[in-house]
Structures
1.
Amino acid sequence: MSHISKIELEIKDLEALKNACKVLGFQFMENQKEFIWYGKWMGNQPLPTGITEDDIGKCDHAIRVPNAIFEVGVIRKDNSWILLWDNWIGGGLEPDLGKDAGILKQAYSVEAVKKLARKKGYRIVQKKMPQKVRLSLCLP
Amino acid sequence: MKQIIIDVSDDGEIRLETKGFTGKACIEESEFIKELLGKEKSRQLTPVYYQKVKQTIKKYLHLCG
């Protein structure tokens, strides 16, 4: 063992996000400028940095989740993308999206790492483990 | 064997671990993953990190003739 790091995710690769949607059976709606949500901000949760009440519902792309009424907004922020969605239970997103969109973030991370590691010539082993996915990259 | 292991939990948390590297090589080799996925929140160095890369030292004996 040499070192262990914890990483805070930033979505930088839109193609990897599209692939993650495909893997999960979600529909990536290219250039859809609005996403479905409750429609009225209740102020019960903090908004991401740089997002105001007026921004909710507006997006650069959107993600449709089967069996859910609400959608996920994909918004360009500097050099990365942020996900914005209404987690009200009636919207139906959480069962497939995961708590705090964890399942989508997990699928994105896996797709992004695989894509770049493949380009760099690493041998990749993907393993589903209890409550996590493990990617092992072996140097050639 | 040199390995980079990335664990992504179901709630989206990412943990990266390097194995089989000596010294700073582990930081350099895994940098592209950190840059790709976001910001490094914490880093824990393990004893192997502090090991020096093996160097061949040549010693010459003074021969008196």
Note: The CA atoms of residues 18 and 27 of chain B lie 8 Å apart.
2.
Amino acid sequence: MKKEKIVVYTGLGDVRVRQSSHPVEVKKQTPRDLKKKEGK
Amino acid sequence: MLLPLLLQIAADRGWGKFFHDQMKITFPPHAEIELDYMPPDDEHVWITFAMTFGNVPEDSLLIEHECYAGMKRHFDPMWYSIGIGASFEYPLWIYCTRETPHVLKMTNLTGDYVTADSVIWMFEMTRSNFAKFQEFIQGIVDFFGGTRELISYIRLQLLLQLYPEIRDELRRALRAEARRVLREYDVYLRGE
């Protein structure tokens, strides 16, 4: 069975993953992008 | 929390600015992650002084920060119910750079999906302004924490109580010294 991912949406700051129990996907998005996606 | 007030002084002097950043993490059941959070360039220092979480069910996430040489459980200054209780309170105050990132560890304690919608509150400075800020902080520590100075102050007060007639003489003598110290902080007395 495929292990599900942890998804990290970041804004201005950079993120570096040290360790995790699951595969991680980092998506750089500004808060404005997130709001657009949610249709706000 | 008095520490952000020091940042307000730094902001008034034009050393940096307050801002906040958003980070949203979606956790599968029982997932755990340890990550470094840092500014995107080498030029800046971020002082992260608070982190708040919206819409996280209570006790669903264990959040820890590497702060004061150890992982400390998260204390949310704006939402008391996160965490166990008052014994874990501590001010978040991390000098966050690319070499010394803010280390965060989050664990989903439940068997459900959890989304941590977090806001990181911080103050941004360039490295040269950060050096000035550190000097300023050290000055405050020396002023309030210097035992020798405190004893000198008490002695001075005693002296004035015993010999009130020397007050004017002392004022004249100390005025020059006070003026010199104030000038270092770009503060000038009236009439200068």
Note: Chain A has a mean pLDDT of 81.
3.
Amino acid sequence: MNYQFNWAIVLTGEYADWIVSGLYVTLKVSGLSIVLAFALGTIIAVFRMAHFRPLRWIALAYTEFFRNTPLLVQIYFWYFGSDPLFPESIKKWLYAGDFSFAAGVIALSVYTSAFIAEEIRSGIFSIPKTQLEASRAVGLSFIQAMRYVILPQAFRIIIPPLISQFLNLIKNSSLVMAIGVMELTYQARQIESYAFRAFEAFTVVTCIYIAISLVVSLTITQYNKHFLRIIKY
Amino acid sequence: MHWGVVIRNFEYFLVGAWPAGPMGGLLMSILLALGGIFGAFWLGLIFGLMRMSRNTWVRLPALVYIEIIRGTPLLLLIFWFYFLAPVVFGRTLPSFQSSLIAFIIFTGAYIAEIVRAGVMALPKGQMEAARGAGLTHVQAMRYVILPQSLRNMIPSFVNQFVSLTKDTSLASLIGVNELMLTADQVNNRELTAPMEIFITVAVLYFIVCYVLTSASRRLERQLARYQARGR
């Protein structure tokens, strides 16, 4: 193996700027997607527990379909094939801006929301039923019981899996490079094809991803240590 | 709507140009996933057991491997093996082989964690009783712990296989001719029906994955009945 390493080329100058801008785009895509995914996921989880059956079926079909198809197919679908789905006004707004970015965010949020919905549902189910019964017996309405008794406990349980979903989302966001969003993996490929420095570029980018994931898993561990102790059944 | 495009190319989606030409499509995806899970099982078993070792020098490499792989996006890993082969071996590796290696190494880390969780989930008494009966640690693992825990892990393996099947779509980005790439090819050739094509491909993936997921759920319920429990 006679390969001359040249770290300086990746760590300074233009290529370093590319990596930094890639990191920024990765964080922007993931940050935006996690917010949307959480909102969508909460709605789907509520649908999943509704008394009205068709709502439950819709939510079930949604979670099963999006969890059992590859993210890349979904990204391509939103990017190439979603044209007939949007009304004219939304289309105009989407196409005026950066459409590949928008398609990537939509695909990532829809995909992740299916997973988040399941986490939220299982979190709520993990609270013993007696809690709801007791709070109803004390005189709270269903909504009040949910709002003041069940959800505050459930969210505490849901937070660690939610954070790891966020971590998955950051890693999954590398796929949007396939439709030309210039995030971290895209920039690594870019440096590879401009400078033939695959090893250095991929090493730096891999280290960034690993650093992010280590920080996130440390957060979960700390969280578990401090907060989960309090909850006992 | 242009569903005619899909109907004309449906066989191409399923098997590619096979048997007259190169294999592709869904068949290729499934082959990739099967090869990947087979290799990953052995790799994951070895590293999962190493991860539980009391010897730091055995445990540490496994820990580093698992943490690094689980912190890296699969796509990046696929690029690693694809672009590094020329540097390391001096010649390019075919995209099928290099993506298969990436899948094995990636899934192996997740299987190692499944193996660890499965072994830890068994009641401690099993190991103690086996040791008490005169087996060595290795014998106890081989004849008492692993046969039980591996059986309990089957649903998790199936789930891992499902996510690997979905992940094989990433191999299209380095040019492996599997379902995703055939879809992309047909889309580029026809240009008229992207929505129909990608919906069809999504449904094809969905059928495979959903059948397996449901099977694993049923299996999980069945296996739960025959478990050794701690008190």
Note: The mean pLDDT of chain B is 91.
4.
Amino acid sequence: MSLDPEIVVLYCQHCVAQDAHVAVAAEQVRGLTVRPTLMPCSSKVEVPHLLRILEQGADGVELVACPEAKCRFLVGSLKAEQRVSRARGLLEEIRMGGQRLGFSRKEKLSAEALLDLAEARAVAVKPLGPNPMKKGEPA
Amino acid sequence: MIRTLLAGSRLERVLSAGHFAVTAEVGPPRGPDPEAIRKKARLVRGVADAYNVTDNQTAVVRMSSIAGAKILLDEGLEPVMQMTCRDRNRIALQSDLLGAWALGIRNCLSISGDHQKAGGGGKLKGHPGCKNVYDVDSIQLVSILKGLRDDAVQQGGDSIEPAAPFFIGAAWTPLAPPQEFRLLRLAKKIAAGADFIQTQAVYDLDRFAQAVQKAVEMGLTEQVAILAGVIVPRSAAMLRYMNANVPGVEVPEDLIKRMKSASDPREEGLEVSVELIGALRQMPGIRGVHLQAIESEELLPEVAERAGLLPRPEVLQGFMLQR
Amino acid sequence: MIVAEWKPVNELAAALGSHGKILLVGCATCVAECAAGGEREVETLAPLLRMALQVEGHPVEIRAKTLERQCEWEFLEELDEIIPEVDAVLSLACGIGVQAVAERFPQVPVYPGVNTTALAIREQPGLWTARCAACGDCVLGETFGLCPVARCAKSLMNGPCGGTRKDGKCEVDENTDCVWTLIVERAKARGSLDSLAQVRRPKDWSNSRHGGPKRMFREDLRE
């Protein structure tokens, strides 16, 4: 890509180690722009949220959830996974590319591991090209 | 036993005279060529007392059963015009019945009809997106037929002149769930006016015999002539398919094994059919067989011959004069 | 309630591509209950459509609003000020709501965003099944509370047909129960199997759509 891919990572406090969140700032690292976003819980993320993030120009979104057995809302992370799946389907339908959305289960990620996730997502979206919604981008 | 004839068809006369009746199925073509029916007529002539012409079976458009029935009549064969409730409302059904009678058709089998979804999904496209009708169901259609015959009246109350007497048929699928209710439903068809019954294909003689025995106990076999369905098997795959996909058809595992290990499946299929017919002839309550060889009508003469069903009995021809 | 399902998004994008400003309006009643046209669906469809149209090269401005119901003239008044600012409306309401919007605002094209399909109940989360066919001649008291018009593929009054599968499902759909099998079971459980022995007469369909577009008039409720 000519421009750095912008990857938004959504996670809760249990998914990421305390210092990792602070360490990963919204700056250019490894050739991509990572926007780490702390959420109350993955289960709070709904399809409209994911689509709006992409509508606003992010090239990819990675939703990090707790391991299934550790979900504090019992089935919350399962719902999050279902929603990501639905949103991916919708993105495929409109030819935006389902792989702009990712879902993984992690706990106590270090800063490095968090960046690994973001980088993996950037690699996945690379073949799609930049998000057509980016301001000033040709359609 | 002297009995006033209801419609005077050959099928009725054969049954009235106490013979073991034979009907056979003739499927109309997926096109307008009358020669296709004439060819089949030539193949099966003499095999049966009457020949069923199906009505857009499996919701696939074929030449209409009324036209097919008329062509058979012209070839000297007596038709049983099948009528489903899927495509026509009560106006069209009654109108077609009046027309059928005018053309000389005297037997009618009333069935619900496969839902139009059955028409697509296989090799054919069918018309799965069409509207269906099902204005009346098969039992109500039996009542309608009775009204046209015995009271010279249409379903809505208007009279017809003269009456249109048909020998009225209905179907029975004794082995489909809910099994105990199937006998009650058979009783309903008889109460509505059914004169003869054709059953779904029989392969499991024990289970079929149990159901028929119950019908005997309920007195139903006195009131209606039951003809058991026999479909000539051509392969183990065909039997397996029917067992899995055709509701009410139960094929015992050893029969499938037998067909599978046969060195000559065609011959084995004929043997099986002959054995089934032999057993059904002995079964109390069964007064005939309904033979089907799906798109292989040429097998039927051989089956009938080997099963000892030929020649068909002589009965007085001619139709009922108007009352 | 009335249930509906999304039309394919690309179909909507194709219909809307020629307009510059669209009002996407949802309904918080029936279609919200079946997750087709409520606020959440509006908030899903708005970014989705914007992206779809951008990808196709027809970027469009989408304004979004969800009304309590679109089948009440009073609620539609809330759109009075927005309509002059848009050149088309995409309504996620059932067919009734879409038509109400079109009737109140004949000056703009109104497109349906969903296909209205049935009168259904939510059997379980994520599963709605049709229960009523609005036949205008309810016989539920005689069929043990199970509707053969809506739930039998052939609307038989004297079912079941010969097509019941071995597991009691309908020949038309392996996931759908044969409702007549259910009726027989209930009749048995209540010791009333003989009530099903009566031949039910042909139905009078004239109080439904078959008798013409339904017009229900109550003199006592006129103003």
Note: The first strand of chain B starts at residue 21 and ends at 26.
